[in-house]
Amino acid sequence: MDHKILQTTRELIDEVGYLALTVDQVAARAGVGKAAIYRRYASKAEMAFVATVHEQQLPPPVRTGSLHGDLLALVRAFHVRMATPAARQLAPALISEIAVNPELDTRFQDTFLAAEQAAFADIVDQAVARGELAGPVDPAMAHLLLLGSLASALYVLNLPVDDAMVSDLATAAAAGISALADRHHSDPGGAAGKPVDRGAD
């Protein structure tokens, strides 16, 4: 049933666009009840996000043996889905809905962003274990450096992001993460390795 709901959502976004999409349309074409959809997804925005951009569980990480290689593999995998026409339609609408819907914001933070940051934590831990990084780096900051930059390029600046740019983003993120690790290692009391305080003005 999950596959049918998501496949139908993708088809309808291609046909009518995200703004005209309704849960009723998805339920009717998929042959399921609306209640079955809402048991899985809190809103149309979440359902469409899962269908087009980001499933709730990420695939196992690619182990390349280097920080840059791991970051490049990760950002390439995200770029494939984030750069689709459907994702470009959905992202601004999702951001707008999250801004006014605290429940969706919390769900988004606790599922999708938590999974992404866990992937970055794993990449950083592996790099520290290999001796590539002088010490740990806040995964939220690593996430911001790479996927935050990709999302900005795609959804805010509307740049034609190709694989060369994706590779440059990975290179820049690896350099930034290394610099933060060096700074934190040389100044253990500094802010570089501490979690990002999202409550500060």
Please tell me about this protein's structure.
With 201 residues, the chain is an all-alpha fold. The protein folds into two domains: 1-40, Arc Repressor Mutant, subunit A; 53-186, Tetracycline Repressor, domain 2 (Orthogonal Bundle). The chain contains nine helices and no strands. It is elongated, with a radius of gyration of 18 Å. The relative contact order is 0.11. The mean pLDDT is 86.
Throw out a few tags for this protein.
single chain, 2 domains, Tetracycline Repressor, domain 2, 71% helix, 201 residues, 9 helices
- H/E topology pattern: HHHHHHHHH
CATH class assignment of the largest domain: Mainly Alpha
Give the number of helices. Answer: 9
Strand tally is 0
Describe what is shown at a glance.
The chain has 201 residues and is mostly helical. The chain has two domains: 1-40, Arc Repressor Mutant, subunit A, CATH 1.10.10.60; 53-186, Tetracycline Repressor, domain 2. The chain has nine helices and no strands.
Topology:
Blueprint: H1 2-16, H2 23-30, H3 34-40, H4 44-52, H5 67-82, H6 85-100, H7 102-130, H8 139-156, H9 163-186
Helix pairs in contact: 1-2, 1-4, 4-6, 5-8, 5-9, 6-7, 7-8, 8-9
